Amino acid sequence: MPYVQVNITKGATNEQKAELVEGITDLLVKILNKNPTSTQVIINEFETDSWGIAGRSVKKLRAEGKTAAISKE
Amino acid sequence: MPYVQVNITKGATNEQKAELVEGITDLLVKILNKNPTSTQVIINEFETDSWGIAGRSVKKLRAEGKTAAISKE
Amino acid sequence: MPYVQVNITKGATNEQKAELVEGITDLLVKILNKNPTSTQVIINEFETDSWGIAGRSVKKLRAEGKTAAISKE
Amino acid sequence: MPYVQVNITKGATNEQKAELVEGITDLLVKILNKNPTSTQVIINEFETDSWGIAGRSVKKLRAEGKTAAISKE
Amino acid sequence: MPYVQVNITKGATNEQKAELVEGITDLLVKILNKNPTSTQVIINEFETDSWGIAGRSVKKLRAEGKTAAISKE
Amino acid sequence: MPYVQVNITKGATNEQKAELVEGITDLLVKILNKNPTSTQVIINEFETDSWGIAGRSVKKLRAEGKTAAISKE
Could you tell me whether strands D40-46 and D3-9 are parallel, antiparallel, or unpaired per DSSP bridges? Predict the structure, then answer.
């Protein structure tokens, strides 16, 4: 039954998404003994213009080379 | 005041979305006596690569013809 | 596979919640042909102090008898 | 640490998004004394076909010129 | 029509919540010209045990006095 | 910058939550090369009366011993 939503900026490949889905599902099964059949993992991707950290968009932070200090993405 | 978010994989037509919005709003009015004017229903659609069930993406499950057993979509 | 989240203010009975879960699941099966087994409906309840409409909390709006004009709840 | 998600219909410019991110972050710092570095604001945009108010899509409400009475958007 | 969800750890007073609701609604009206009547702001509070940053719970980070460096909360 | 929300029914211990937070953060660092400092994981717990699968509440499914077939929880 668990439902997990992963919000990230765009750029992940389908292979990376598949790894995330598999890895998170495994964690829920191992740690909480959840039934994998009803475990759902959704990956929600956002433009860097639509995600702000510390009051500024990730797009601007990256353009200024400041993102490394705050976040790789 | 209710806010309802419906997460599905892409593929619904605008007519189907309109039916969902109308049907869910009706339920909130009938069951909970909510004011329809302030009832909002949002439909959030995801790629099948971004939705995982049982540790695998819906895209892969469909490609293998396994989705029927777990989920039509 | 659909995942539906219903956000409302506290006050619904378990019977009302059960009706909502059943009704919304039926809609997804009928309108979108979804598999009910993998359809999940979650009801998330909030205090009236934590829900604002038109810039004011539902608690204050109700105390002033103004909620009827904006929202029954 | 706060996480804020703003759901709106499509149409906001990057400048408007930047103003929202900055303004909401400022509010969390001023009102709740939150650390801006860990404050995240995400803007999630939806098609007018995917957003319903009062049981009808915003797209239809706008086409009929009825949206003004219920909502500018 | 905008819907805003603010996720924070528990501890905000009703007065602070009211200020947040008012401030965020004002921003949506001023920046995006949204109709305040249909603007909803929900504040969702979490236990510090249920919120993790950098792989550790906010509860633990605070107990170790490390939260200041990462986040006031 | 990633933000992950894990929705489950109530019952997880603080130790289990801590394991989830750590495990999911590690996955985001390893698979997507995200900065752990800005990675947030929130665990949102729901009553079994508020979570429905296949049109029925998890509470009822468990009482009837039917949950095992659909979901351990």
Answer: parallel
Q: What is the torsional sign of CA A40, A46, A51, A53?
A: positive
Nearest CA in chain A to F51: A1
Domain that holds residue C46: 3-70
In the residue annotation, C36 being an active-site residue is answered as no
pLDDT of residue F66: 76
Strands B3-9 and A56-57 turn out to be unpaired
Residues lower than pLDDT 70 in chain C: 67-73
| Alpha carbons E61 and E55: distance in angstroms, whole number | 10
How many domains does one find in chain F? 1
Q: pLDDT, tens digit, for every residue of B11-30?
A: 999 999 999 999 999 999 99
The C-alpha R_g of chain E, in whole angstroms, comes to: 15
Q: Which residues of F touch E44 (CB under 8 A)?
A: 44
E51 and F45 within 8 Å at the Cβ level: the answer is: no
A 10 A CB-CB count for E72 gives: 16
Q: Which residues of E are catalytic?
A: 2
pLDDT at D1: 80
Task: Show residues of chain A in contact with D21, CB under 8 Å.
Answer: 52, 55-57
Return phi, psi of residue B47, to 5°: -65, 150
* Residues of chain E numbered 12-71 and touching chain D (CB < 8 Å): 12, 16, 19-20, 23-24, 27-28, 31-35, 37-38, 51, 53, 58, 70-71
User: How confident is residue F71, by pLDDT bands cut at 50, 70 and 90?
Assistant: very low
Contact A6, F25 (CB under 8 A): no
Mean pLDDT of B54-68: 87
| DSSP structural state of residue A10 | S
The pLDDT assigned to A11 comes to: 95
Tell me the CATH number at D8. 3.30.429.10
| Least confident interval from A28-32, C59-63, D4-8, F69-73 | F69-73
Kindly provide the ipTM of the predicted complex, given to two decimals.
0.92
Chain C residue whose CA is closest to F49: C14
Residue F68 has pLDDT above 80, yes or no: no
Element (H, E) at F23: helix F14-32
Contact between residue E56 and residue F41 where contact means Cβ atoms under 8 Å apart: no
Nearest residue in C to E8, CA atom: C50
